[in-house]
């Protein structure tokens, strides 16, 4: 589906974040919103057509030019509005429909009224998405994050620069020369609020979040060289028994031992009766005594999933300190923390102060929607957690700019645009590129770029 013109219903958290990304990537965006404050804020920062009105009124759709829209995205806080908007969009002939639906009673495959009844192509449930993301990260917790890239066995692994990591204060060129016999590539660095697509002269600094790309067959040796120790995840503590915390406990309860801390007595009692594979503790997750009594010292991972940003960040900081067994035993294991952060600005704070992983529901939902939008343009997309960058697969068209010179000759141009051509698929295998690599027409490549540079990366391959 070739998508250029997109209509967004609702400028709440997901809608605004999504609109920013889509505008940056060059899509034509129209928005229907009834809240004056949200409209005023969006008009100040978005190059988009904003309709002040109610999405349940057909006049708003006509003012939005619904007949020329390729994709409708309904992400208001009301399931009913989003589902009816999908039906209206279908009547206007809009081919693609995405709707946020939280209730399991509607819109899903096994619901009494499923997504086909509402003409929805894709259902988005932010809480479910971020819950599954947390569960996936827990099961891959040897590193901070491991992402599958393409079909050639490549992985992107994220590590915090600290402790025993041997790369600190070395340039990318020095690292490449030191580890010439171990093929890996540093494809992105998160440093405070900045995202770096590194060149040879960039240096790894303490507390950087560093993203490595390598073939999975080299992962065991890589983990050993980076000073990591693979140990099975056996015990997890979750603070917050809301929709996300309870769902994570359900997803992981049969695989690991879980203790779920909830401060509300009524909710704690409900959780105890509904979640079979977790111990429910009544208490405040920011209270050190509650943490200790709950066995925080024995935990492998601590997850903060309350509705309060500050609670999640503070409890993760406390847990990070308590779970650092290297304070008493140099060979001890350091527990990892995952914080649910509902305010985007706090993601930078969480990364800067040393939390392992911070997730945001709006961003998780937007990432899933972006995958759907790009389905017809890109082979695959993987968002790199904690950094404003993505790994995408592109095929080089005959005569495209990327095929005309070896990558070494294009290095300066690519770096200025925050784009890295990191891998290429040849003879059925994915291999890392270097300055001598020339991309051939028809070859599939793995490109890492900042989110704002994806459109420019695509143009290099067209």
From TrEMBL:
SUPFAM superfamilies: NAD(P)-binding Rossmann-fold domains (SSF51735), TrkA C-terminal domain-like (SSF116726). Keywords: Ion transport, NAD, Potassium, Potassium transport, Transport. Residues 144-228, 379-462 form the RCK C-terminal domain. One of its GO terms (molecular function) is potassium ion transmembrane transporter activity. This is Trk system potassium uptake protein TrkA. Pfam families: TrkA_C (PF02080), TrkA_N (PF02254). The lineage of its organism: Bacteria, Pseudomonadati, Chlorobiota, Chlorobiia, Chlorobiales. Signal peptide: none annotated. It comes from the Bacteria. InterPro entries: K_uptake_TrkA, NAD(P)-bd_dom_sf, RCK_C, RCK_C_sf, RCK_N, Trk_Ktr_HKT_K-transport. It comes from Prosthecochloris vibrioformis. GO terms for cellular component: plasma membrane.
């Amino acid at each position: 589906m070739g998508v250029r013109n997109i209509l967004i219903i609702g400028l709440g958290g997901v809608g605004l974040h999504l609109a920013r990304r889509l505008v940056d990537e060059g899509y034509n965006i129209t928005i229907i919103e009834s809240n004056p404050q949200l409209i005023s804020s969006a008009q100040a920062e978005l190059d988009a057509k904003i309709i002040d009105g109610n999405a349940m009124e057909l006049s708003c759709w006509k003012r939005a030019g619904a007949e020329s829209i390729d994709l409708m995205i309904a992400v208001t806080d009301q399931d009913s509005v989003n589902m009816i908007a999908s039906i209206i969009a279908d009547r206007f002939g809009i081919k693609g429909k995405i709707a946020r639906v939280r209730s399991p009673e509607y819109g899903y495959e096994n619901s009494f009224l499923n997504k086909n009844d509402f003409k929805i192509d894709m259902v988005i449930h932010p809480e479910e998405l971020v819950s599954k993301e947390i569960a996936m990260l827990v099961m891959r917790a040897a590193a901070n994050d491991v992402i599958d890239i393409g079909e050639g066995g490549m992985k992107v692994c994220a590590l915090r620069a600290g402790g025993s990591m041997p790369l600190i204060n070395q340039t990318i060129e020095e690292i490449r020369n030191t580890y010439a016999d171990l093929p890996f590539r540093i494809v992105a660095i998160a440093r405070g609020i900045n995202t770096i697509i590194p060149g040879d002269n960039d240096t790894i600094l303490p507390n950087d979040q560093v993203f490595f790309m390598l073939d999975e067959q080299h992962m065991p040796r890589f983990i050993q060289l980076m000073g990591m120790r693979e140990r099975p995840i056996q015990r997890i503590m979750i603070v917050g028994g809301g929709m996300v915390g309870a769902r994570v406990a359900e997803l992981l309860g049969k695989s690991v031992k879980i203790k779920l801390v909830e401060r509300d007595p009524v909710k704690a009692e409900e959780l105890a009766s509904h979640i079979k594979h977790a111990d429910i503790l009544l208490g405040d997750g920011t209270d050190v005594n509650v943490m200790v009594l709950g066995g925080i010292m024995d935990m492998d991972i601590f997850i903060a999933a309350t509705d309060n940003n500050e609670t999640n960040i503070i409890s993760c900081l406390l847990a990070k300190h308590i779970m650092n067994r290297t304070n008493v035993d140099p060979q001890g294991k350091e527990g990892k923390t995952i914080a649910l952060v509902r305010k985007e600005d706090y993601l930078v704070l969480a990364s800067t102060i040393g939390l392992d992983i911070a997730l945001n529901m709006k961003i998780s939902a937007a990432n899933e929607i972006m995958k759907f939008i790009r389905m017809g343009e890109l082979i695959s997309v993987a968002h790199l957690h904690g950094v404003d960058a993505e790994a995408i697969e592109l095929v080089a068209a005959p005569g495209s700019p990327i095929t005309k010179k070896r990558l070494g000759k294009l290095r300066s141009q690519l770096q200025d645009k925050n784009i890295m051509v990191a891998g290429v698929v040849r003879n059925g295998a994915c291999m890392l590129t270097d300055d001598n690599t020339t991309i051939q027409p028809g070859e599939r490549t793995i490109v890492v770029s900042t989110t704002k540079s994806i459109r420019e990366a695509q143009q290099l391959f067209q």
